[in-house]
Amino acid sequence: MTIRRLKSDLSPEVTTCLKLKDAVRPDCCIIRDKIPYDAECFSQDISRDLEKLMRRHDRMFVKRRRLMEMAVPLRRTCRFLPRCSCPFSKTIEMVRPCDAESHTRTEQLALPLVRRLLQRRRLAIAEEDEVGEAILNRWLRYSYMSLYSRLANIQPLTKPAKKKKKTEKQKLRHEKYIEKLSKPRKVPEPEKGDKVAKQSNPDRLKKLATPRNFLVEAKLPWELTPEMKHYKASKRIKQISAPIERENVHINENPEKVSPNALRYKPSPRIKEMSEPPAARDANQGAADVKENPFAISPNALKYKPSTRIKELAEPREFENTHIRENAFAISPAALKAKASPRLIELAKPKGG
After folding, report:
1. Per-residue pLDDT tens digits for 32-83
2. CB within 8 A of 92, min separation 6: which ones?
3. Which of 28, 146, 159, 202 is the most buried (most CB within 10 A)?
4. Which of 14, 13, 30 shows the shortest CA–CA distance to 22?
5. What does the alpha-carbon distance between residue 125 and residue 135 come to, in Å, rounded to a whole number?
6. 140: exposed, middle or buried (C-beta count within 10 Å: 0-12, 13-18, 19+)?
7. Digit-coded pLDDT (tens) for 126-175
8. What is the secondary structure of 45-106 as a DSSP string?
9. Contact of 10 with 134, CB cutoff 8 Å
């Protein structure tokens, strides 16, 4: 049995020390299922029967030397000593390992989202629903232990740290800082110079009005100097100046041999027919694609029978002329049944009447 508990888990209280032996159980834990006073007389008979069962077990059990040697524990003491739950202010919840494990991907995906559970847990806390809060705490723990929560790096719930109260010095310092920030900023005044407003220096204006002088660098003519005559190029310059020799990919100096199958191949009559050059025509004969009798109808076209769909498409469309009415003086029945409103009657009256 494993005991797991979140910091924010507020599930119903379950004491863990009640499952321990009397010799290991501390004095602070209360024994809830105590033997009643009236049943203490049966304790001797029960202990006697237990001794008989132990002797019978010892006679039936075959002790082998190798098994007994292997049964000796390496650590005489427990690695994790059980602690009493009495000093803890918050409650804990016992969870069996078979309930917490989920191996298949379907079970992992079936767990609700952590954010949705957190929202529902806040609502349960606001409504003071202890049972719903305990159920949501268990679901949250399973969701935190799932593979997808670990990949998303979702951290378990932690209780927010309480803020320390400020001392009197800190409060005074904070008030001074707020007063300093609340004061408006002072706009810097411009410096007062010796210049008088609306006056300019004439010497400065003349200097600015003169055009700029741009110096044009004249290129000297090329001359063959004696240093250039006796100059000797280095190996690197000779290597760089050499032209790049590229292979001619389009010319195959060593053509490949023709396969014997290609040499023994016999072309078909169709290939021979296609290999013949087209017959030349004279200019006086006209185009090659012109028929000898252009008005002759092919026999297949004479035998052709059109389908019902082609006959239907061949019929001309009937268009109605909607711009001109057949009876220009006819009045629609809706206009005959219409009743004028008081406003229309008022507007229909002639002016000055």
Report:
1. 556 666 666 777 777 788 888 888 877 776 777 788 788 877 766 666 665 6
2. 3, 5, 9, 11, 13, 14, 16, 85
3. 146
4. 30
5. 12
6. buried
7. 888 888 888 888 888 877 777 667 666 666 667 778 888 889 999 999 99
8. HHHHHHHHHHHHHHHHSPPPHHHHHHHS-S-SS-SS----SSS-SS---EE-HHHH---SHH
9. yes
User: 29, 84 in Cβ contact below 8 A?
Assistant: yes
Q: Is 351 a residue whose pLDDT tops 60?
A: yes
User: Could you tell me if 3 and 95 are in contact, meaning their C-beta atoms sit under 8 angstroms apart?
Assistant: yes
Cβ 148 vs Cβ 114: under 8 Å: no
**DSSP E strands, the chain:** 2-3, 94-95
∠ at Cα 206 (204, 211), nearest 5°? 115
Taking the alpha carbons of 295, 299, 302, 306 in that order, is the dihedral positive or negative? negative
Which structure tokens are listed for 101?
A: 């494990």
Q: Mean pLDDT across the stretch 81-86?
A: 63
> Are 162 and 143 within 8 A, CB to CB?
no
Q: How far is 284 from 11, CA to CA, in rounded Å?
A: 109
Gap between the Cα atoms of 123 and 127, Å rounded = 6
CA separation for the pair 159, 64 (Å, rounded): 55
Nearest to 151 by CA among 119, 97, 120, 105: 105
Q: For 101-121, write each residue's pLDDT tens digit.
A: 555 677 767 767 777 788 888
Give rounded-to-5 percent helix, strand, coil for the chain: 40, 0, 55
**Percentage with pLDDT > 70 across the chain:** 69
What is the three-class DSSP state of 175? helix
